[in-house]
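re: ur msg from earlier - yeah i can do the 6R9 complex, just paste it... oh wait u already did. ok heres what im feeding in:
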Amino acid sequence: MSVTWALPFDKKIKPKIGENNVIDEKTYSEIHEKTVKNYKEFWEEVASQLEWFRHWDKVLDESSPPFYKWFVGGEINASYLTLDRHYNSWRRNKVAIIWEGEPVDEKGNPKEVKQLTYSDLYREVNRVSYMLKEKLGLRKGDTITIYLPMIPELPIFMLAAARLGIVFTVVFSGFSSDALATRMNDAEAKVLITADGGWRRGKVIDLKGIADKALEKTPSIKKVIVVRRIGNGVRMNEGRDIYYDEIMSDIPHNAYVEPERLKSEDPLYILYTSGTTGKPKGIVHDIGGYMTLLHGTMKWVFDVRDEDVYWCTADIGWVTGHSYIVFGPLMEGVTGIIYEGAVDYPQPDRWASIIERYKVSILYTSPTAIRSFMKYGEEWVKKHDMTSVRLMHSVGEPINPEAFEWFYNQVGRNEIPFGSTWWMTETGGIMISNLPGYLMIPMKPGSNGMPIPGLEADVLDDNGNPAKLEERGYLVLKNPWPGMPLTIYKDPERYVKVYWSKFPGIFYAGDYAVKDRDGYFWILGRADEVIKVSGHRLGTYELESALIEHPSVAEAAVVGVSDPIKGEVPVAFVILKQGYNADDNLVKEIINTVREKVGPIATIDKLYFVSKLPKTRSGKIMRRVVRAVTMNSEVGDITTLEDEASVDEIRKAIQEFK
Ligand code: 6R9
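and the outut:
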């Protein structure tokens, strides 16, 4: 758990912009309660604002909980909702995506900017759908993996798959070969879409090379499509690999593919997310419920309007990008920005220059980004006019009040709505948030605000009773919501076990949280072994598996510890096999192995050698204990610990660390 700061329960700020629309929290709670009481009717009303090919017969199928199905009988298509609707309206020539590449010229201006109108996007998605269908023979229910950097082809492939009911799984381009292979294999993907590389901090990431390594162990992949981003002539495997421009060259520019009439509860995508133990979980999202939740939250949380320029700084490879770069904003017909690279490259004010250049009015970013801007200092912020920003939110990890206030002052001019939206891959969209577009309550720096309408959340103690106010407990969601997972791909039992068993019948999020006297939620971070590094979600399991692949490593434990900028960083404790020397070279080598296998985001911050790890009598590593010792906090109950000397070992290793 990463929160190390005090929670200012009593500090309330009323944003000046929209001040007249701010209501007190009691009034919100009363209105909210009504939406929760009749949550099916409430969500039905939201869903009816979308365009369906066929109206649903039943709002919610509850016949086999927790496998709820929303809007059963309804027929829908996410590609139709994001494209055809706008193509058939005045928005046809409205800019859908402003894409900015990372490289800059000598003056520091971006070398490449592309603008795609809704009509451009519609055409390109149709052409790609046509290719997937006619050339690759893919059909509804097939799965593909997309491993691309932040280039327009990424949303294009997602939407093209969605058009046909092809289930896609996007793998974040900061993951490496093992992580990619595991996900392709679990999804049994038939096709991989990748690129000849991607730009990150001025360097080329060799995506194709990484993909080739992964493909050595992914028998289901029959074809690989390679987008030319760098133009560096990568190795192509004859018969298997083909360049995107080549396979597209004879597809007519006006190709049209009828959007499939998909069932509301058909799968849209699988997104893998790391958990406590075992391999990553393939969270499966539906179409009807998911799009309904996105529609609601785009309005309530972001208050999107046609004149807005919207920028979510996340990567599309994570759920935030899926929901709030691709499906949500495009469904609402917004002009959105997709930026390829690092927000502080080549200078710390790259992000601010983007806001100024395109007059961004809605900004969605992360606490890690904000803390790094803070560290660079306000002189970088002052260089740019960012008065276009009228609303902003943060996401991915708890935001410390200091960072909140700094950003509120620097970019928010102490007057605009600002919040910290809590949600997770599993929830599909935002669940707890300030709602400037619906009913805004006073903001509290560091708090997430209150649950969205139609959703009941609570904080429970170990016995499943509501936790005392202002005391830590577990965050739960108490009623089904549209956008909830259909299941874990190919593992429904695990779905029940992980999310619906700690407190039977209600959804356990895995986060610690506090509810204050005013009913505000403060989500404090994970109660399990998930680590959030710069807001990126990593499981200890994947890191530990990579560690023990190094020939010298016998056993390993990874825990997340607080970091002033990144929120958390992974540190590792390693037991060496006999005959290996614990020297600096070996440390470097082992850390590199993890980077190579899992990805650069999984860089181990510190590596300690020990001869024992704290374990339970049944042999499970007690990471909770390891973390407590590492962070110098209370170790807590260690009655199940097999050998107390192991705790001293950890302590000693930390003290001796140079
Ligand atoms: C959207 C996303 C989910 C975990 C979640 C929690 C943390 C996300 C947060 C937050 C405090 C916020 N989290 N938003 N914690 N305040 N505003 O990040 O999804 O990658 O699945 O991570 O992120 O710990 O459980 P995902």
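cool cool. The chain has a mean pLDDT of 96. ping me if u need the other ligands too
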